[in-house]
Target: Rap-GAP domain-containing protein
Amino acid sequence: MVVAAGWKLDVDHVMSRLEKNIFREHIDIATDSLEALIRQLDAGLLTHGAQYGSNDTSPVTWEWVNEVTTPASAAYRLFIMSYPEVTDNIEASSEDPLIKNLSVPGLYALLFYDGFDREFKSELILEVKARRCRLFNEVPANNLVGSAFPLPYMARRYQKDKTTFIIGRRSTIRK
Model:
């Protein structure tokens, strides 16, 4: 377990089916899964005391975010919800200087920003995967075990199936 500035990451956090679909499936299904995940996370966060635009987060919220059964992406959504000023000057463009220079976990966090439309979120999903490929070609997957989510999962996924890693697979998903 890693704890920093109130943010706890339990490396045994469960990945939800929706999170897996973002990385496994074709872009249409991946984007649908992202939108469903955001709705699911918002319901859980709001039920447990989180508020849009407020970083005055209750211990109840943190307890829910840190539960092993809560999707790992909950902390990213909570961050985006709580600190809207972080995204104030970001343009929905792959040419935006921040987007061009963000790490993979940083780009993944931006997927949870409501200011981007579906088309740009689809582009971001593809960019997350593409940057990950460049990283995985330089860094062995086992060196990423303690890295920020979703790096460890993506490293394993990349090792299993490099051919469909970026474009995703066309298949029927389990609900």
Notes: Residues 1-12, 171-175 have pLDDT under 50 and may be disordered. Helices lie at 17-24, 27-47, 59-66, 74-82, 97-101, 104-110, 118-138, 151-160. The two ends are 30 Å apart (CA to CA). The CA atoms of residues 100 and 150 lie 19 Å apart.
